Amino acid sequence: MRAESVAKFLGVAAVVVLLPGVYLGLVWAPPDALMGNVQRIMYVHFPSWLATGAGYLIGFVASVLYLTRREPRWDWWAEAGIEVGVLFNCTGLLTGSIWGRPTWGVWWTWDPRLTTTAIMLLIFAGYLVVRAFVEDPEARARVAALVAIVGFADVPIVYFSVRWWRTLHQPQSSPETVDPEMVVALRVMFLAFLLLFGYLATRRYLLARTRWETERRLLELEAARG
After folding, report:
1. pLDDT of residue 221
2. 124 Cβ contact partners less than 8 Å away, ≥ 6 residues apart
3. What are the residues facing 36 on neighbouring strands?
4. pLDDT over 70 (residue 22)
5. How far apart are the C-alpha atoms of 66 and 59, rounded to whole Å?
């Protein structure tokens, strides 16, 4: 019941923060001096990557803890974090593509940032595929944990790609280089997306826990039948 209460709180909080955040981003904040209103998609694009990073980080840490402690709850958290991370990874790529069409003139280009991000999505989508095809719960958790740990190596590569290589994608901005009203709108949306991520991840954790309990009971029944 405790996790369910946390999920409900996070869900309500996400809505409460998201609604004013949308208003601040779409109405209150000024348009960009160069890109105009096209820039407003960044109030979804940037927070999506924050939620993506949170999901993959939770998946990495939980996978390490599972391999060291063998406690099922860490496997549940790893699955929850990575699955929700993949969702926001897709949102980030989609909104980036929508922004890139009027700004760069193309929907997609094999820029280092975009390429490493696409690879990251494929790696963690592969994590979910592994979980779907391995039937034994313990073997599934071990193999998935290894995939998550190895795959996480791409996350810092994505982040530093705009610094390591000559890239079309702009480097990370800072509050000093952005209009103060834009900063406020972005920070509210960052908080809203983190709360939304927390809600979805907690719900996914509860689902993973329920599935594990169901699988364990089925295995016990099969063992009892001999």
Report:
1. 79
2. 56, 59, 82, 85, 86, 89, 148, 151
3. 32
4. yes
5. 10
Give the whole-angstrom CA distance, residue 15 versus residue 32: 26
Helix H segments across the chain?
A: 2-23, 42-69, 72-104, 112-133, 137-151, 154-164, 180-225
Model confidence band, residue 176 (pLDDT cutoffs 50, 70, 90): low
For residue 132, give the nearest of 120, 140, 124 by alpha carbon.
Answer: 140
Contact 137, 215 (CB under 8 A): yes
Tokens of 46: 């940037």
DSSP 30: P
User: What does the block give as tokens for 88?
Assistant: 């926001």
As a whole number of angstroms, the distance between CA 216 and CA 223 comes to: 11
Confidence of residue 2 (pLDDT cuts 50, 70, 90): confident
Question: Which residue shows structure tokens 């920070």?
Answer: 187
Size of the chain, expressed as the number of residues it contains: 226
| Structure-token pair, residue 138 | 């313990």
The pLDDT assigned to 153 comes to 95
**Please, is 92 exposed, middle or buried when counting C-beta atoms within 10 Å of its C-beta (0-12, 13-18, 19+)?**
buried
CA–CA separation, 205 and 74 (whole Å) = 10
- Residue 224, both tokens: 């009892």
The span from the CA of 6 to the CA of 29, in Å, is: 32
Read off the tokens for 202: 């907690």
User: What is the tens place of the pLDDT at every residue in 90-127?
Assistant: 999 999 999 888 888 888 888 888 999 999 999 999 99
CA distance 226 to 224: 5
